[in-house]
Structure formats: structure tokens, C-alpha cells
């Protein structure tokens, strides 16, 4: 029934999650921002984060039907594959989620 996409879906579940609120300069740390306000940008979207991942050649998947757990009005998230199955980085310049955020801005 799923056309073979079940394997892909189970693989994507292992990837890291980036919510746009993590990069939003208008949010406080208590509201969910995870990087310095000086390095963040105002109101990022999942599409913009995905564009940055494409530029960096990082495999990603946009999940528009998911919401940020602390605020259900913040809809959408991006799953990124930072490491291969053997543990080596997909892009040697990007090893952590914070490095993705640095490249985003």
C-alpha cells in the first residue's frame, strides 16, 4: 500500500530535526531559540531552511504537517541527515545542527 516508501520514512525518522523557531531572532531562548540572537534571522521558514540544506548538499525532508511542541501555531520542521549510517558526516564542513544554522544566516 505504501509503495515502498516505508523504508524511506523509517530512515528519515533517524535524521536530526530543525524547527524554524530554533533560528528565529524574534524569539527568546525560553521560547525555543537555540542560537545567538546576533546569528539568528527574523521569522525563518521551513522552505528557506530546506533551500540552505540544498545549497550545502545535505539530504533533508520538509514536514509541514508537524508543529513545534511548545507552540502549536509554529507549523513545520525540517529533518536533515548530518551523518551517514557509518557515522561519518554527509558534508565534512557541517557536522552539527548549529553549523547548519551558521550557514543559514
From TrEMBL:
<keyword id="KW-0539">Nucleus</keyword>
<comment type="similarity">
    <text>Belongs to the SRP19 family.</text>
</comment>
<protein>
    <recommendedName>
        <fullName>Signal recognition particle 19 kDa protein</fullName>
    </recommendedName>
</protein>
<dbReference type="InterPro" id="IPR036521">
    <property type="entry name" value="SRP19-like_sf"/>
</dbReference>
<dbReference type="GO" id="GO:0008312">
    <property type="term" value="F:7S RNA binding"/>
</dbReference>
<dbReference type="Pfam" id="PF01922">
    <property type="entry name" value="SRP19"/>
</dbReference>
<dbReference type="GO" id="GO:0005786">
    <property type="term" value="C:signal recognition particle, endoplasmic reticulum targeting"/>
</dbReference>
<comment type="function">
    <text>Component of the signal recognition particle (SRP) complex, a ribonucleoprotein complex that mediates the cotranslational targeting of secretory and membrane proteins to the endoplasmic reticulum (ER). Binds directly to 7SL RNA. Mediates binding of SRP54 to the SRP complex.</text>
</comment>
<dbReference type="InterPro" id="IPR002778">
    <property type="entry name" value="Signal_recog_particle_SRP19"/>
</dbReference>
<comment type="subunit">
    <text>Component of a signal recognition particle complex that consists of a 7SL RNA molecule of 300 nucleotides and six protein subunits: SRP72, SRP68, SRP54, SRP19, SRP14 and SRP9.</text>
</comment>
<keyword id="KW-0694">RNA-binding</keyword>
<keyword id="KW-0963">Cytoplasm</keyword>
<keyword id="KW-0733">Signal recognition particle</keyword>
<keyword id="KW-0687">Ribonucleoprotein</keyword>
<dbReference type="GO" id="GO:0005730">
    <property type="term" value="C:nucleolus"/>
</dbReference>
<dbReference type="GO" id="GO:0006617">
    <property type="term" value="P:SRP-dependent cotranslational protein targeting to membrane, signal sequence recognition"/>
</dbReference>
Amino acid at each position: 500500500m505504501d509503495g515502498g516508501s516505508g523504508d524511506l520514512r523509517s530512515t528519515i525518522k533517524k535524521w536530526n530535526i530543525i524547527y524554524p523557531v530554533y533560528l528565529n531572532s524574534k524569539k527568546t531562548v525560553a521560547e525555543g531559540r537555540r542560537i545567538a540572537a546576533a546569528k539568528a534571522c527574523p521569522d525563518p521558514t521551513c522552505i528557506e531552511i530546506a533551500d540552505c540544506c540544498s545549497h550545502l548538499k545535505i539530504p533533508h525532508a520538509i514536514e509541514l504537517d508537524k508543529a513545534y511542541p511548545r507552540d502549536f501555531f509554529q507549523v513545520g520542521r525540517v529533518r536533515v541527515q548530518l551523518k551517514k549510517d557509518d557515522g561519518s558526516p554527509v558534508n565534512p564542513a557541517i557536522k552539527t545542527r548549529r553549523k547548519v544554522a551558521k550557514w543559514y544566516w
